[in-house]
From TrEMBL:
Superkingdom of the source species: Bacteria
Family affiliation: Belongs to the CDP-alcohol phosphatidyltransferase class-I family.
Entry-linked Gene3D superfamilies: 1.20.120.1760
GO terms of biological process kind: phospholipid biosynthetic process
GO cellular component: membrane
Protein name (database record): CDP-diacylglycerol--glycerol-3-phosphate 3-phosphatidyltransferase
């Protein structure tokens, strides 16, 4: 199974590398040095918080404004990683901030668009993100650095595209295909967690012999 997982992971990473190659054409020669990758990521954090306040505190449901803000947030997710790699500014804090920003930008839109008609889907998405957040905090408490993997990135791409579409058709119900796509994104969430567990095992951080023995089978 590990061979299949590694093969699939390599396939997705190769696809993602084309994004880097394209953006590097602009980032390496033209990106302003004073703007760090974390600056870009912080924009996503602030947009997510602002969306939460806008939708749930003030109850402002300006469709155009919400779509624009969310799209800008998604755009920052598209470029902050390549900026970090293209300018040699990859840091552990930046990776942690990136995954946190992803959750912050997705959360208000997920609740806003799914709560009425798709509560179970919303609950599943939230539980997975909560588990991922708890795991990340645990890794950090043990001073274990686990880099974000391509499965988590793929999940974020799926969520971003689907929620943009849902916002465009809102308040009409989204096409069933996109709801199924959100359910399917959970597969990548679990693959991401499983890949991290395998990485922990390979690095010797999992001490339980029974668990280690089972993981080694993969």
């Amino acid at each position: 199974m590990n061979n299949y997982l590694n093969g699939f992971q390599l396939f997705l990473e190769n696809l993602d590398s084309y994004r880097d190659k394209f953006l590097f054409l602009f980032i390496k020669p033209y990106w302003p040095g004073k703007i760090t990758p974390n600056h870009v990521t912080w924009i996503r954090v602030f947009i997510g918080i602002f969306l939460f306040i806008l939708l749930f505190w003030f109850g402002i449901e300006n469709k155009f404004l919400v779509i624009v803000l969310f799209s800008v947030g998604v755009l920052t997710d598209l470029i902050d990683g390549p900026v970090a790699r293209g300018t040699n500014r990859v840091t552990e804090f930046g990776a942690m901030l990136d995954s946190t920003a992803d959750r912050i930008i997705i959360l208000p839109i997920a609740v806003y668009s799914l709560f009425t008609h798709h509560k179970w889907l919303l609950l599943a998405l939230l539980l997975v993100e909560i588990l991922n957040a708890i795991a990340s905090l645990f890794y950090r408490s043990k001073e274990i650095y686990i880099e974000s993997n391509i499965f988590g990135k793929t999940k974020m791409v799926l969520l971003s595209v689907v929620f943009v579409v849902i916002l465009i058709v809102w308040p009409n119900p989204p096409p069933v295909f996109f709801i199924y796509t959100l359910w399917f994104s959970l597969v990548f969430s679990f693959l991401s967690v499983f890949a991290k567990i395998l990485e922990l095992n390979n690095k010797g951080h999992i001490k339980n012999k029974i668990i280690t023995k089972q993981l080694n089978k993969y």
